[in-house]
Amino acid sequence: MENQTVRFEDLGLSETTLAAVKKMGFEAPSPIQAAFVPLALSGKDVIGQARTGSGKTAAFVLPILERVDAEKGYPQALVLTPTRELSQQIAEEASRLSLKHPLRSVCCVGGRNIRPQITDLKKGAQLVIGTPGRVIDLMQRGEFDTSRLKMVVLDEADRMLDIGFRPDIERILRKCPTERQTLLLSATLPAPVARLAQKYMNDPERVDVSHIGANSQNSITQFYVPVDQDRKFRTLIRVLSQEKPQQVLVFTRTKRGAEEVYRKFSGRLPRIGFIHGDLSQNLREGVLSRFRDGRLRLLIATDVMGRGIDISGISHIVNYDVPMDCDDYVHRIGRTGRLSSTEKIGSAITFVTREEGDQLTNIEIRVNKELARYEIRDFETQRPRRPARHVNDPA
Ligand code: AMP
């Protein structure tokens, strides 16, 4: 959903960048782009609260294109992300947006041969996109010179802190020039992110569009299903046959859980896969690319892996396990109803056991909306609370 009043021409972008944006087929800036780009172009530090799927990659890549000097062959902008997949996705979006710019970028993530990354750095890449571990490795080898960085972007900052990157991020930031511009993007702004921002940013402006846009929760229909743990799988089968989703992402809380659900499916339904952090990088990429091009219709994922997946065909999210915290819920359901999807609407269906009532309430408070109960025809998702008494049972 485009921002009705603002045009890309109003954001202060150069003709070259405007042409690239047009070529991408973007008609109007999304709310985060409209709010974030002019501030970022002014050189200020900015905190943007927006989810993936709201166009936030372009919100920071466009200012990078404008502020980096492509004549100078050394790193001037660094983008840090929590997952390799997200780095890869940003690198692809950056390369599409920089079609008309002489900018060179390099994607520095682990699980891949470091040599080509070093070669690209030596060739004078100006934009470095990567995960903290590999970025530190390259710094320690003396291959990545951070001393002339003008811009540092922390994408999905809340998740980076969640999965224990804080010492790494601080280590990297300490090596960056203090007069740099720092941009921080986060779907939520919990206390640790706010503290990081305070410590490493200079009087940041804050833009919060997490409540509006195409990817707002309004474009997603949200349901819950009260379910017994041992009926979850059968419930999932029922939901799938009732919904007939175009593509569905099923979230489990644990890696083992993801594999278990996958195993239960085997032989029952084709075109199913799973993804979690213990799979090799190659396997992860293979699964994602098969999901992206539609060869897989159902993907079972854990939170970290499911995050940042920008796939337009996802019509349904099923929370097979209720997420541990409400921020995870927001991230999970953000995988559907995305800006890039043709339908721009989606459904999120959350399985909740009797013991998890409080979690459901917390989610409802977080999204400020009461979730509707999902009805399944001719199937009991829960056993009755007391065993049914037979007529002949003694009283
Ligand atoms: P992101 O939130 O950056 O992951 O972007 C989600 C998707 O929306 C990507 O496929 C982008 O190419 C696309 N996108 C970004 N900005 C716009 C826009 N202004 N209009 C239409 N699509 C966009």
TrEMBL record:
<protein>
    <submittedName>
        <fullName>DEAD-box ATP-dependent RNA helicase CshA</fullName>
        <ecNumber>3.6.4.13</ecNumber>
    </submittedName>
</protein>
<dbReference type="InterPro" id="IPR050079">
    <property type="entry name" value="DEAD_box_RNA_helicase"/>
</dbReference>
<feature type="domain" description="Helicase C-terminal">
    <location>
        <begin position="219"/>
        <end position="385"/>
    </location>
</feature>
<dbReference type="InterPro" id="IPR011545">
    <property type="entry name" value="DEAD/DEAH_box_helicase_dom"/>
</dbReference>
<keyword id="KW-0378">Hydrolase</keyword>
<keyword id="KW-0067">ATP-binding</keyword>
<dbReference type="GO" id="GO:0003724">
    <property type="term" value="F:RNA helicase activity"/>
</dbReference>
<dbReference type="GO" id="GO:0016787">
    <property type="term" value="F:hydrolase activity"/>
</dbReference>
<dbReference type="GO" id="GO:0005524">
    <property type="term" value="F:ATP binding"/>
</dbReference>
<keyword id="KW-0347">Helicase</keyword>
<feature type="short sequence motif" description="Q motif">
    <location>
        <begin position="6"/>
        <end position="34"/>
    </location>
</feature>
<dbReference type="InterPro" id="IPR044742">
    <property type="entry name" value="DEAD/DEAH_RhlB"/>
</dbReference>
<feature type="domain" description="DEAD-box RNA helicase Q">
    <location>
        <begin position="6"/>
        <end position="34"/>
    </location>
</feature>
<feature type="domain" description="Helicase ATP-binding">
    <location>
        <begin position="37"/>
        <end position="207"/>
    </location>
</feature>
<dbReference type="GO" id="GO:0003676">
    <property type="term" value="F:nucleic acid binding"/>
</dbReference>
<dbReference type="InterPro" id="IPR014001">
    <property type="entry name" value="Helicase_ATP-bd"/>
</dbReference>
<keyword id="KW-0547">Nucleotide-binding</keyword>
<comment type="similarity">
    <text>Belongs to the DEAD box helicase family.</text>
</comment>
<dbReference type="Pfam" id="PF00270">
    <property type="entry name" value="DEAD"/>
</dbReference>
<dbReference type="InterPro" id="IPR014014">
    <property type="entry name" value="RNA_helicase_DEAD_Q_motif"/>
</dbReference>
<dbReference type="InterPro" id="IPR000629">
    <property type="entry name" value="RNA-helicase_DEAD-box_CS"/>
</dbReference>
<dbReference type="InterPro" id="IPR001650">
    <property type="entry name" value="Helicase_C-like"/>
</dbReference>
<dbReference type="GO" id="GO:0005829">
    <property type="term" value="C:cytosol"/>
</dbReference>
<dbReference type="Pfam" id="PF00271">
    <property type="entry name" value="Helicase_C"/>
</dbReference>
<dbReference type="InterPro" id="IPR027417">
    <property type="entry name" value="P-loop_NTPase"/>
</dbReference>
